[in-house]
């Protein structure tokens, strides 16, 4: 086969030779240090003729003309061109490392890349040094704070092991998925949050429910270790993500893991030790003797004195450790990256913590001249002890009971290790010591990507790209509430609980693409790609709950009561897409594309839904308006339009029959939800325009993007006449709009041999509006209007927070007369990220600041503390305008008068997200042993906020963006300091 | 040019491949209503029938409690929701209203119509089933389903009164109109007539099983006695005394028999079964109106329906007589029982055969350890006495308010706080279009 192609190639050359002069251009490509660069792509401009450099950095290419321009490009280096001719056929080229993003390659199609300078979308991307280079990241999303414009990232709790939500460019759906699609090396990675089943004990969502979204479970993208990530690209809206179709309306996060580089065999050992402690402790109420007496604590105070239980629970310092050993390198045929990462993190609460082990092997192999295989495989075992926090209705969650625990109580165990019952309904020290609530996930993520060059001609080439990918995990959750807990001592109590959950999730993906490249004589480049994709999703969760345990035993089979809950989700998607990219000499770059999707999740599984996209980028600086030594390096105008979808929930298309039992016989009854058998995906249409400007030798770069996106056919659970027998129905009954502005300014104020300083400002703002609502306005999220809720209402922000009011002490608070006043909005006024990198000799330093201005939260923790009379600021008099009441009394008085407002607070913050200072020692100075990098870093070291609780970033209801910002006694957030040493052999 | 052809060829190839159709995925979490609507097997029909019976209990406490509290039989003094002592008692200065979108209005309404939907699903499934049922077999299912439908509609009509009820819900996308109270009763009579005729054509046995709550009423002929019992109640409400008396003749009435006889909802704590939601342990402060005890004749053994406990006070209301109609959380709740039938017989005979009315009253008095009736034999006195007996015999079973309304005497119900009022009916839920 190979010889045949070679023969053809030779034949072509002969043919060409009769027409034109030809010569062989050759040379060596090195980097600044003199090291050869292997695998640099060498292209004869205006043709598809190309080659790559070999293990010595050498290239050799036949040119079919007397003169030609060669273009050299290599990831992480500035592209460079030279003119070669028969007289001067090349020579050694030194490629400089790239410090600006223009040369970066961005994945835009499913199988093609584009240079950032030609990109028509504001695709955010960050590389390894920004992801994990500054400080150690417990989870992937945490590394994005402040770095991605348009991304609202929120930590749902401080519990070890993650639990974060990412919202890209505003609210994209009300009842559908609002979280982006994560794709890791071609694998669709599941990011579910699976209930831990602890509702049986906490009754947070009322009794009787097994699964609840209030039990502080982690989300599964947290499994991925950041140390292995090479780059993260974020397609924020439909204009960029449209090619991913029905799953892409909430955006797509494309994660690429590290690959080996030919010739650079490297062994890297890296160790991080760290300390973690609570971001903030609130302290205690300054009780007056009268207050103690009013709370009935005088005698207990005399007997027990005061104990700072907050400090007992959250005053601990946890130890952190991350170890990574990686091997990478290869030759011109095979590259490898093999990495093992082990993390061990203690929580600030006893009996909680996170350990994660990850093993990855990424192998690339050039099978033949024309066929290349990339195999990526990853095994992860992650275990987290989550503790028992968030809302509850049985006074048993640690956070909830802490609110009602008075410092004069004695909660410590006696000499026989027997705990006294806590006055709060449970003893927080006992609960912390005895309850375990663990997640244990075993996960395999594998993909094989094959690229075959089907044919290559002078002016065109065709390649086939195939991907087989699979993500599978098994999640075991186990919560044990021993019978000996004092809150189980009453008659009629649950008698202990042992809760075992098991989830198996599999996502299989198969995709194939054909990519055709064509160059015209006039220098235009057409790239055509067509492809098809198929994904199969299968998730099965079983939670078995045992109560009334057999004495001290926790075995489920020995318990007197057992109940099981099962939920399965099965979905198959099939799609195709076509895309045409036109590059007119890097001056104008235009793309049109179409995606078609069908899915079993739609009412009609055979119906194809189409998502078009089109965009154009004009590089004004390439037109020659400015001469070459102009100070304008780039001036690009761009516009992009695209559509993408959000699937309905799995159950939305069914009129289910639910199980019931009477007298030992089972039966089936109508569900209260009326399914919609014709349900289809929601559709987002996004228009994005912007400009990218680089000035003064790229010392100044500016990016401005404006977007306007409409979501049509938003699926709602509309209340319908209950005389139908149903209470709600799935209908397409709303439209949402999000508009936003994203601006970044990058500067390199100082750049010389000794000192480089780069600084980037990322500023963004989003405004949402419910533009159409065919059903009556409704409240959602939260608990009740008197406690602050979201409200979907035509003409209002989708994230407005409303609550009840007392009209007597509020004038014109409720202009629309619906009984609710608007107390705030969870959407931030704006976000500002400030990223700094300084290189000074062998030192380098990085610092990331993040300012979230505005955005409100509902602080129900303080409500509970106020009701108990334990709030730290209870007696301060900063709120009452008349100065008479203490804060606690003022808030509760307001609330009892019918105002939901007192606990709806501004959740702004300014944080130093990351800071790192490193010293690099090159191996020459340590007897050629290894390059060393030593440093100290911190995460969330400085946190400035007025919000009256542990942290303004919180969600009692997990990742749902229309229920988060509501806090009920969460696991407190923490800050970290790390010490690093890395040796590269 | 050839290039373009090549591209188009590839394009069509890919599109063609992508067009392979996907099979629908069944929901593994439960069957769909559609899958039972056609070709249901006999085992599937049994599941639906059991569901119809089981789901009648769903949210039933919202019926019993709202009706009992508006009728001043008892109070919810738990204080967990202020609406039980405020809104439901008409608190205000005589201008109290029931929220037409609050749960006091909507929960019972929705739950009863869900029951009606279950019955309709069963009827649809039977008529299109693949169970090989003969006409008699089908008629058995129909009779059961229609009886449940009629009973659930009657409960709804009891609360809605002049706001009417929707009888035809067969097509959720094209619901029938709301009809007036009297048309509602007429419609329910017609459904019960149909059920009776279907039972008569259902052979000797049902092709499905019912729970032990229906023991003694679980064949077409004995089930007919239950239908007739309900018919007697509806005819009485409609003011058709002769209709009530003739219905009673086909019912299980037995003036000398067990006053509790009759089909019932049963409960248990096992698995996914339900507990009796209107059994009140001492921790739940559902307190009888104090006059229940003070108005009683001495020695009335129906006073056992309340238990003296610590006094509960909230919102200016107080009580120390815990409602203990049901003895445990798995005690059955009668749908209709002999004692009511005897009292229907008494009431329906007033004005026609007052002697018979008095003897029926005495049957109930005797059964409850009271001496025979000694009051006047005029219609008004007897009506008074029947109302009193119904108050005590059917305490907490959802009758008092309806009885006083029928008698035009809601104004006689006690008002405990200035500004409270006794509502005549519940509003139509806001989401119900005409």
Description:
The complex is a heterodimer of chains A (985) and B (434). Chain A has 985 residues and is mainly beta. Chain A folds into 2 domains: 20-98, Immunoglobulin-like (Sandwich); 141-984, TonB-dependent receptor, beta-barrel domain (Maltoporin, Chain A, Beta Barrel). Chain A is 8% helix and 48% strand. Chain A is built from 11 helices and 48 strands. Chain A has a 22-stranded antiparallel beta barrel. The two termini of chain A are 41 Å apart. Chain B is mainly alpha-helical and 434 residues long. Chain B folds into 3 domains: 36-209, no CATH class; 240-267 and 335-414, Serine Threonine Protein Phosphatase 5, Tetratricopeptide repeat, CATH 1.25.40; 281-331, no CATH class. Chain B has helices at residues 2-18, 33-37, 42-55, 60-70, 103-127, 135-160, 181-200, 220-237, 241-249, 291-294, 338-349, 354-367, 379-393, 400-406, and strands at 74-76, 165-166, 178-179, 264-265, 286-288, 306-314, 317-323, 333-334. Chain B has a two-stranded antiparallel sheet with strand order 1-5. In chain B, strand 6 (306-314) and strand 7 form a beta hairpin. Chain B is globular. The interface between A and B is large, with 59 and 66 residues.
Question: Any descriptors?
Answer:
heterodimer, A: 985 residues, mainly beta, Immunoglobulin-like, 22-stranded antiparallel beta barrel, 5-stranded mixed beta sheet, 11 helices, globular, B: 434 residues, mainly alpha, Serine Threonine Protein Phosphatase 5, Tetratricopeptide repeat, 3 domains, two-stranded antiparallel sheet, 7% strand
Write the layout of secondary structure elements.
The complex is a heterodimer of chains A (985) and B (434).
Chain A: H1 2-19, E1 23-31, E2 41-44, E3 50-52, E4 58-63, E5 67-73, E6 80-85, E7 93-95, E8 105-107, E9 113-115, E10 124-127, H2 128-131, E11 151-155, E12 164-168, E13 181-184, E14 187-189, H3 199-202, E15 229-235, H4 238-241, E16 252-257, E17 266-278, H5 289-294, H6 298-304, H7 309-314, E18 318-330, E19 334-346, E20 353-366, E21 371-385, H8 398-403, H9 428-434, E22 436-456, E23 460-481, E24 497-519, E25 524-547, E26 561-584, E27 588-599, E28 609-619, E29 632-646, E30 657-662, E31 665-670, E32 673-674, E33 682-695, E34 700-719, E35 728-751, E36 755-773, E37 778-780, E38 789-792, E39 800-804, E40 820-825, E41 830-840, E42 843-853, E43 856-859, H10 860-868, H11 887-896, E44 904-906, E45 909-921, E46 931-944, E47 966-967, E48 974-984
Parallel strand pairs in A: 1-7, 13-16, 32-35, 43-47
Antiparallel strand pairs in A: 1-4, 2-3, 2-5, 5-6, 8-9, 10-15, 11-12, 13-14, 15-16, 17-18, 17-48, 18-19, 19-20, 20-21, 21-22, 22-23, 23-24, 24-25, 25-26, 26-27, 27-28, 28-29, 29-33, 30-31, 33-34, 34-35, 35-36, 36-41, 37-38, 38-39, 39-40, 41-42, 42-45, 43-44, 45-46, 46-48
Helix pairs in contact in A: 10-11
Chain B: H1 2-18, H2 33-37, H3 42-55, H4 60-70, E1 74-76, H5 103-127, H6 135-160, E2 165-166, E3 178-179, H7 181-200, H8 220-237, H9 241-249, E4 264-265, E5 286-288, H10 291-294, E6 306-314, E7 317-323, E8 333-334, H11 338-349, H12 354-367, H13 379-393, H14 400-406
Antiparallel strand pairs in B: 1-5, 2-3, 4-8, 6-7
Helix pairs in contact in B: 3-5, 4-5, 5-6, 6-7, 6-8, 7-8, 8-9, 8-11, 9-11, 11-12, 11-13, 12-13
